[in-house]
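Here is the promised in-class demo. Please do not try to memorize the tokens; focus on the logic of going from shape to residues.
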């Protein structure tokens, strides 16, 4: 069994809490529906009254035991007409109910009409003899659901991602061509280090093959800046940025930045076929990103990256 990632665990926890949050109200409403299943107007009136209390529900509806809709979709402002007779039996959320699930909160899906991430909860409606006579459905827009858990925090485990198969298949027919950045790599790396240490850059991506850099600064983190080679090779560029002390939220020790950059350099020049095309460093989350000529990518913490030698990357 594949272990859940932190992101998947966060999603699972959110679903569990939403399931519990909705279960009681869905059960009570389904019981109320049981006595009036043959009266469409009464059902719609009941659902309308419930919608006045349901803060984050988008639609309520009822289908018969075969999955055919017997009410319109009830909204907080009225009805979505044209739904009577709609066959929902093939929808994944109703399939689970038809197979015997008493209550089910669906996986998220892209809705047909709004084209937005949505969820559907389905509760079985039983008669006095305990037999299923229909199903109560409630649709939810993920935008409108209450946040029931803490925000996901990215994990820092080493992640390897395979790239374009077309690039990988032609790997051994290519060779590194020296870029303008390669020719002055020491000066460029020193300049970018300076931008991180005293000009407020917290995330830097170096594109060695195309001789440019993409930078994110503490002062304006929502906008990135692209520096071309002429700018990266001119120390005067530092005058364009306000002096700022090394970011207090950074977890990468200042003295480790040059070591990380020297490792970037080593990976760039270690092999003429398999070489580093681009690399990034984020000093706040401490993550290093690497993209190689085979189009494979790696993401790992900076301390783990510094522990890896050339033998690890290229073997004997």
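The designed amino acids, position by position:
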């Amino acid at each position: 069994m594949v272990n859940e990632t932190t992101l998947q665990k966060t999603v699972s926890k959110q679903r569990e809490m939403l399931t519990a949050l909705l279960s009681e109200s869905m059960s009570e409403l389904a019981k109320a529906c049981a006595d009036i299943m043959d009266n469409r107007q009464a059902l719609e009136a009941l659902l309308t009254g419930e919608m006045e209390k349901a803060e984050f529900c988008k639609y309520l509806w009822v289908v018969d035991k075969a999955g055919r809709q017997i009410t319109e979709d009830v909204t907080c402002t009225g009805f979505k007409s044209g739904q009577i007779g709609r066959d929902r039996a093939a929808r994944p959320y109703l399939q689970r109910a038809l197979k015997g699930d008493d209550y089910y909160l669906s996986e998220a899906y892209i809705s047909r009409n709004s084209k937005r991430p949505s969820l559907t909860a389905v509760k079985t409606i039983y008669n006095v003899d305990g037999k299923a006579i229909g199903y109560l459905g409630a649709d939810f827009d993920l935008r409108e659901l209450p946040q029931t858990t803490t925000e996901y925090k990215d994990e820092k485990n080493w992640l390897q991602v395979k790239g374009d198969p077309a690039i990988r298949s032609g790997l051994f027919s290519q060779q590194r061509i020296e870029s303008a950045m390669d020719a002055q790599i020491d000066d460029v790396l020193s300049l970018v280090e300076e931008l991180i240490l005293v000009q407020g850059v917290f995330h830097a991506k170096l594109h060695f093959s195309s001789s440019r850099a993409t930078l994110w600064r503490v002062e304006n983190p929502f906008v990135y800046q692209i520096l071309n080679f002429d700018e990266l090779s001119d120390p005067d560029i530092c005058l364009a940025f306000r002096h700022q002390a090394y970011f207090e939220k950074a977890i990468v020790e200042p003295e480790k930045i040059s070591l990380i950059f020297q490792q970037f350099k080593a990976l760039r020049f270690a092999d003429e076929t398999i070489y580093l095309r681009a690399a990034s460093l984020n000093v706040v989350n401490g993550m290093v990103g690497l993209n190689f000529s085979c189009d494979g990518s790696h993401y790992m913490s900076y301390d783990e990256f510094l522990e890896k030698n050339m033998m690890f990357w290229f073997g004997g």
